[in-house]
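Study this pair:
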Amino acid sequence: MVVTVGGIDSARAAKAATATIPIVFLVGTDPVEDGLVASLARPGENLTGISLLIGQLYAKRLELVSELVPQAGVIAMLVDPKTPATERNIKYVQEAASAKGLRLFILRASTATEIDAAFAVLAEQKAGALIVSATPFLDTRREQLLELTARHAVPAIYAFASLTVIYRELCIYAGKILEGAKPADLPVQQPTKFELIINLKTAKALGLTVPQSLLARADEVIE
C-alpha cells in the first residue's frame, strides 16, 4: 500500500506509478475535479482517501479575518505559485472579497527569500490583514511567517492548527485496506469538524480588540 500526504502532486505521482497497489491519499483539493477518483462516494480503481476542502474554506477565512479587522480595505493573500491549486484558491477568495467590497492583493512566494520580499510589498500596500495559504512549502516556513507577521504587525489567519483527527482517519483507512477492504469501495472522506483558534495574546500585542462574536465561536482562545 502507498499513503500520500503531500497534496495533489504526491497523489498524482502515486496514481501514475501503479494501477494495482492500493493508495490512500490526503489532499487539500477536490479529488474528483482533479481527476484522482470517479466520485467521492465510489472512488473506483485503487485510490481513496481524505479531501480537506481547503479551497472551499478560503472564503470563510476571509470572512473571519475581515470581522477581526473590519476597518481593513485591503486584504493580502500569500500563495505559493508552484502549488497546482493556487489559481483556483485565489478565485475563491477574490469572489468572496468582491462580495464584501474588499480589495484582495496577492503575494506570491516559493522560496524563503521571496517570502521576505512579499512582506515588504505587503507593507507598501498597507494591507490590513493576511491570509496564508495552506501549501506544503508555506507549511514548512511557519517560524519565518510568524516572525514576519509580528515584525510587520499584521493580523494573519492560517489554515491549520491540528491535523490529529485527519491523520487518525487516514490510518484507519490504511488499516481497513490491510485487512482486505478495496479502496474502490471506501468513500473519500471530508472533514466534519472545523476548529477556530484565536491567539488573544497576539491580538493584544497588535492592539486589536477581538469581537465577542468571534470569541464566542472560538474552540480555543490562547491567552
Q: What stands out?
A: Residues 54-68 form the longest helix (15 residues). The radius of gyration is 19 Å.
